[in-house]
Amino acid sequence: MSLNGADVTQNKDESPTFPYIQESVRNDPFKVPQRYTRSEEVIQKSLFMPQLSSQLPVIDFALLLDRNKDELSKLDIACKEWGFFQVRQVDINALISLQCSYFFQIVNHGVEIDLMQRMKDAAAEFFESPIEKKIKYAMPSGGLEGYGHAPVDWSDRVNLTIYPTRFRQLQFWPEELKDIIEAYSSEIRRVGEQLISSVSLLLGLEEDVLLGLHKELCKGLRANYYPPCNAPENVIGLSSHCDIRTLIVGMQDDTATGTQIRYKGGWIPIKTIPGALLINVGDVIEIWSNGRYKSVEHRVLTNKNKRRITFVSFLYPRDDAEIGPFEHLIDDENPKMYKEITYGEYFGHVRDKKLAGKTHVRATKINEF
Ligand SMILES: O=C(O)CCC(=O)C(=O)O
Ligand SMILES: [Fe+2]
Question: ipTM exceeding 0.85?
Fold first, then answer.
């Protein structure tokens, strides 16, 4: 049975049950259906390295805009060694509670704390509203946009294309989120464009080259909702994956953690500074840079008592953009690692595949053909 495209099944007393995790938890907070239970091997324990997660590089956005050499080289190291970093807003109140070392790493990404909070509040209100209201925006089966759920992961989501505006599918935009999505996305696009320009300089190109190669900078927004789980050690909120885009600008939930990055064969939990934006390198930069910068595997675990909402803004090229490695980054020491492909071909190749660590970018590696 299908209601507005969403998969809906009937249970014994004929009331519909929706395949959304949040609804399942609402109906029975103690139940963890078998299909979400993952093996111990898949779940793999997290490494307890608090000193490492708090060292996630912090980039000073204002200095980056001034093309400050030290900050650019910090960005270079962040992209090379971590693939993940954070940019933060100056917020004196939050600073007071921080360790001293962070005082020297204050950055200013310029996105108003109030705007970020309004995005969080509006999305929380949407997710907490009755299913009958949310289902109006349900992602059709096989579709990519709208209010959906991960098939085997413990999360629901709203997924939307934001830019270029002609690609928008407004029927999937919750009415009450429209204005805030517009305001938030425009700010995040500004931050993303500046970061891509900085990466362009680091790769030895003029600052507008990388953006130009996108043909048009496209942007998607995903709000992830991770309901609490009675057996968090048995489920995964979002399976291990690398993002197939250029650059990803995330806004974490300051009230609960869960996101982890692959580090030396293990997993380390990420804890961002309140007000920070979390940035990660996607496959497209890995390919363009011939592997100098890596898109890092990450995953999300869930919490027993707390729900968690995160926002991920994906920046990526238009389908006809070429994404082969730059010639000047290929030499005897750095042989060409990936083959030329258009972004559309790359996306087509991965869109129907399951989330699975680094398998996607590996498929474009020269020696795997
Ligand atoms: O929720 C998060 O922090 C990460 C989500 C993520 O990796 C994604 O949506 O691709
Ligand atoms: Fe991701």
Answer: yes
